[in-house]
Amino acid sequence: MSSVPVAVVTGSNKGIGFSIVRALCHQFPGDVYLTARDPSRGQEAVKKLQEEGLSVLFHQLDIDDPQSIRALRDFLKEKYGGLDVLVNNAGIAFKMHDTAPFAVQAEVTLKTNFFGTRNVCTELLPLVKPYGRVVNVSSMASGLALGKCSRELQQKFRSNTITEDELVELMTKFVEDTKKGVHEKEGWPNTAYGVSKIGVTVLSRIQARMLSEKRKDDHILLNACCPGWVRTDMAGPKAPKSPDEGAETPVYLALLPSNADGPHGQFVSEKTVQTW
Ligand code: NAP
Questions:
Q1: pLDDT band at residue 199, thresholds of 50, 70 and 90?
Q2: 35 lines ligand 1 (CB under 6 A)
Q3: Domain limits at 217?
Q4: What contacts 122, CB < 8 A, 6 or more positions away?
Q5: Is 80 tagged catalytic?
Q6: Terminal CA-to-CA distance of the chain, rounded, Å?
Q7: Which position among 33, 80, 131, 193 bears the catalytic label?
Q8: Domain annotation covers residue 85
Q9: Which of 9, 14, 94, 110 to mutate to test the pocket of ligand 1 (most atoms within 8 A of CB)?
Q10: What proportion of the chain, given as a percentage, has pLDDT over 70?
Q11: Is there an atom of ligand 1 within 6 Å of 22 CB?
């Protein structure tokens, strides 16, 4: 078994994830895994970084596929006995002009952004070693969507005692409410992406709380963040930040020094803790 520290970035064949891998290759003292759901897109991305003289490794990972997540888990367990840095970056967004029915957009978006990210965490968080760092890439869209939720939903999403099961129930209810055409009546905002990222931010708050309760001597720091508005296939060419600039806050959180006792359980933007 290797004792080299290991970092994994989900959805890193392009965009912000690719830039996070590039920065970690420069700064992380260990093995860095670029992962992609499509192995050929992944290998092509690996080749690009190798051409820059960087040393990077590849593993397949489709966060929508439980078997793929388990394969990565088993690989990390066997080769490294765990992992040190996990960046949950993989995500999707329908384009503004997409004509797919809202209920379809809700189901598909939540499936990857919330349920997929949660499934990765369920399998990989128990493997995270002492002094490990976990970064869940959320979005400012989560805060904006929160502000458009009913008062009752806002209270639940801001609660310091909400459980993961309760959050899953709420995310499931959102999808069901869109199918029944009652989501607005039920207090939800009109944004599937925004609700999926509320899920990611609140999940991060819950996970951090659990780590503090159950593994408090392990000094693991886990946060959600927004990378900013970044020029990628998702956000388009008009966004002000380059992907490398978008990687800055996630990489800062992934590399918090071992003597840091925070941030933890926070939503961070521009390397600054935001109120939720
Ligand atoms: P992007 O260029 O579209 O890249 C998204 C990445 O996620 C791609 O590598 C994609 O792989 C991967 N992915 C999607 N579904 C996946 C799955 N089921 N399993 C594994 N990988 C999957 O988007 P981006 O702008 O870099 O976004 C990265 C993260 O930042 C997302 O979570 C996004 O919500 C968040 N974010 C972005 C912005 C922005 O302005 N760009 C702002 C706030 C938050 P494929 O190539 O196979 O599709």
A1: very high
A2: no
A3: 6-96+113-140+197-274
A4: none
A5: no
A6: 41
A7: 193
A8: yes
A9: 14
A10: 100
A11: no
Q: What is the CATH number of the domain that holds 81?
A: 3.40.50.720
Cα–Cα distance for residue pair 130/95, rounded to 1 Å: 40
Work out the pLDDT band at 130, boundaries 50, 70, 90. Answer: very high
Query: Given the CA of residue 38, which atom of ligand 1 is nearest to it?
Result: 47
Percent of the chain with pLDDT over 90: 99
Predicted TM-score (pTM) of the model is 0.99
Domain tally, the chain: 1
The strand ranges marked E within the chain are: 6-9, 31-36, 57-60, 83-88, 128-137, 221-226, 267-269, 272-274
Residue nearest to atom 4 of ligand 1 (CA): 15
For residue 172, tell me if it sits in a domain.
no
Domain-located, residue 126: yes
Residue 196 CB–ligand 1 contact under 6 Å: no
Across 49-67, average pLDDT: 98
User: Which pLDDT score, from 0 to 100, does residue 2 have?
Assistant: 87
